Amino acid sequence: MRSTPSTCAICGTTLEEGAAVSSPIYPFCSVRCKQIDLLRWCDGRYTVVNDMDPDLLLELGERMGDQDESPA
Ligand SMILES: [Zn+2]
User: Fold this and answer.
1) What distance in angstroms lies between residue 33's CA and the mean position of ligand 1's atoms?
2) One MF term in GO for this entry (predicted)?
3) Are 28 and 38 within 8 A, CB to CB?
4) CA 9 to centroid of ligand 1, rounded, Å
5) What is the value of pTM for the model shown?
6) Fold of the CATH domain 1-47
């Protein structure tokens, strides 16, 4: 079944076909982008910023990942 290609809600990377149904992190391209989105919601400071530096967002995502390493 083919579906229209979609893009990551954070960085705009094109997602794989069928990501909407096959990816647990849809609509994001990676766990990192998902964390960035969560971080935006968790921290009110970022909800008002529309054009944050992508590098800064990635950095924040990495930091969050360090703190939230769940056992596999
Ligand atoms: Zn992304």
Assistant:
1) 5
2) DNA topoisomerase type II (double strand cut, ATP-hydrolyzing) inhibitor activity
3) no
4) 7
5) 0.51
6) Erythroid Transcription Factor GATA-1; Chain A (3.30.50)
